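Run log // design_07
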């Protein structure tokens, strides 16, 4: 195994168990280290610091272990077993009414660069590093040994692997063949677009927040913006919403939303979907009967990441402010606004300031009722605060 040597004094983050080594911390490395290769990391004095995957770029090594151990099938099995046992102890894995959950959440499960989501009889695996990509078959074999009931393991990393690595699109089945996939979340059923949908097919990180929507929905007129496949809409309907409108710019997403509503509420007459731009739709709220929009007293804003990199942060914050200000201007007095950011580059304080600015621009009195985050099956490594990516606020707008 090749070795990477750190600059003097650049070992402190590893002593604090942060799982990333940045390229600027490296003094030298052995010749001919290929991208994705396992490497030993030592400090300037030659002291062993750990083993990780090497990659070209700002994050040069993602640490798999701080112990001198072999990275083999037994290693993957130990890490996957620990992740599974944690979810089991949390009560997330409930075959009768909740059979979709995140099994592996990268750094939060000491497997940086790897995501595995479970949807009933299938698993979807994503690699965010070249190292995990190169070892995907070993990981899939360990996963199937741990969970022999899986009928399919689909590898879906076409949008997550570093483009500079020059890897071809190798998404496809590592085990099994295509199947129609319906999975359960808290007793509700959803079509999972695991082959062509966003992320791994469903936004599992909003499970707890969808449950909270259900508690607020009774008798309300709900607008679910950026609805994707309609998770918040379905929960709101079960919560007794008087009316639910689902909006997304993607016609495909809206079609899946309608299928999910019909799957759970076959005779539903109080749901309607719109394939249109979010800002265009909000501009019409309360102003155009022809556009079939209404006044809402519960609005959900769950947009895609406005900033995937820090160089987009300024524009992202402006976007969050503009979006929330528009919703606050349009919502009925006493209405409830669920607003989220899934941009890792935007921290909690920055998102809250953007929403504060929106409140000031709307000239309305706003109360914070809840501060929301990702669920327990998306754990945050305490040594890696960057893993806290999902931020949310529940607001009452007077």
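design_07 sequence
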């Amino acid at each position: 195994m090749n070795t990477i040597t750190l600059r003097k004094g650049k070992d402190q983050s590893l002593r604090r168990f942060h799982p990333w080594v940045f390229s600027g911390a490296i003094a030298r490395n052995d010749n001919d280290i290929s991208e994705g290769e396992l490497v030993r990391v030592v400090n300037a004095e030659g002291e062993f610091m750990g083993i990780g995957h090497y990659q070209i770029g700002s994050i040069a090594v993602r640490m798999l272990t701080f112990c001198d151990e072999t990275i083999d099938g037994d290693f993957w099995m130990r890490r996957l077993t620990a992740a599974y046992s944690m979810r089991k102890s949390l009560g997330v894995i409930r075959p009768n009414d909740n059979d979709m959950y995140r099994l592996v959440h990268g750094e939060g499960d000491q497997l940086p660069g790897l995501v595995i989501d479970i949807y009933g009889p299938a698993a979807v695996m994503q690699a965010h590093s070249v190292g995990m990509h190169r070892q995907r078959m070993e990981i899939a074999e360990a996963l199937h040994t741990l969970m022999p009931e899986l009928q399919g393991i689909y590898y879906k990393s076409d949008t997550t692997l570093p483009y500079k690595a020059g890897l071809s699109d190798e998404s496809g089945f590592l085990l099994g063949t295509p199947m129609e996939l319906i999975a359960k979340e808290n007793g509700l059923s959803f079509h999972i677009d695991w082959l062509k949908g966003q992320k791994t097919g469903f936004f599992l990180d909003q499970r707890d927040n969808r449950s909270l929507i259900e508690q607020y929905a009774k008798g309300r007129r709900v607008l679910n913006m950026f609805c994707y496949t309609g998770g918040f809409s379905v929960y709101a309907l079960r919560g007794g919403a008087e009316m639910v409108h689902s909006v997304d710019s993607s016609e495909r997403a809206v079609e899946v939303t309608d299928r999910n509503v019909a799957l759970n509420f076959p005779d539903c007459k109080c749901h309607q979907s719109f394939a249109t731009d979010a800002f265009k739709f909000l501009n019409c709220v309360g102003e155009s009967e022809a556009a079939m929009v209404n006044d809402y007293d519960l609005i959900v804003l769950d947009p895609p990441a406005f900033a995937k990199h820090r160089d987009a942060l300024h524009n992202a914050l402006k976007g969050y402010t503009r979006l929330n200000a528009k919703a606050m201007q349009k919502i009925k007095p006493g209405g409830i606004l669920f607003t989220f950011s899934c941009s890792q580059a935007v921290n909690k304080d920055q998102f809250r300031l953007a929403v504060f600015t929106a409140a000031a621009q709307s000239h309305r009195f706003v109360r914070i009722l809840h501060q929301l985050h990702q669920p327990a099956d998306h754990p945050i490594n305490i040594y890696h605060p960057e893993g806290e990516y999902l931020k949310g606020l529940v607001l009452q707008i007077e």
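The chain has three domains: 2-65, 73-184, 203-397.
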